[in-house]
Amino acid sequence: MSILGTMQVCQVGLVVHDIEKSLDAYCEVFGIPRPPVRITDEYELTRAVYRGQPTRGRAKLAFIDMGQVQIELIEPVGEPSTWKEALDEKGEGVHHIAFVIKDTDQVVKDLAQKDMPMVQQGHYTGGMYTYVDCVEKLGVTLELLENFKG
Amino acid sequence: MSILGTMQVCQVGLVVHDIEKSLDAYCEVFGIPRPPVRITDEYELTRAVYRGQPTRGRAKLAFIDMGQVQIELIEPVGEPSTWKEALDEKGEGVHHIAFVIKDTDQVVKDLAQKDMPMVQQGHYTGGMYTYVDCVEKLGVTLELLENFKG
After folding, report:
1. Contacts of residue B115 in chain A, CB cutoff 8 Å?
2. CB pairs under 8 A between A and B
């Protein structure tokens, strides 16, 4: 059984230096209207934790729907984050593949037991995200998205 | 209109150092039966061209079905290839996202005009693949898959 409770990749996330420039290129190649760019919430709302420490690291985000899979463009802003770390270390490229899951605590625990540690976690309106460092095992970071009910 | 004639990502391809070890991890995390590992055909069949030169570069491949999207694991073997280049330069990680397209020559021409040059092309039984270097523009290499009819 899948530790994540799902096999369905819902998103491929890329870190980029200049989200407006990257969006230009995506819109040109795929002939799509320009999606809006938004910035992640401030720490008071996200309560973001990066490598065990609270972080004010933020990011500009844009989402491009490509059928089942969404492309997420991420331009890191400010303080440390998994996004900034990836961009600094490897340059532009795919940072994560994402899955919608149900029980973040259990999944994080199960992955940690297999040497895949949580690297960043935070909240957004209606849910929470968790990045798990699976680069050594799976070649890519996993993002776990849990949307709260009600 | 999409230059590719499609928006649907069909595959996310990762380069890895040891495909058997990576497969172990994927099977463990996603609770799936182990897919077979095969090796790309020899040059006499693939007629592979890498950066304008014929190449005997090959790769071990494994495919994992994740709903609409397939994860492709790629372990480069031997001579130069886009796979080996990516692994040498950036380490393990996502190499490409793939799309099934219809007219490779036209799409390659249209992308080249927008400064996204073809980097590798080759044949497999029933079709051909083309990698286009879109790293600078889109943050990732695109793979164009064209399956021949009949």
Report:
1. none
2. 128
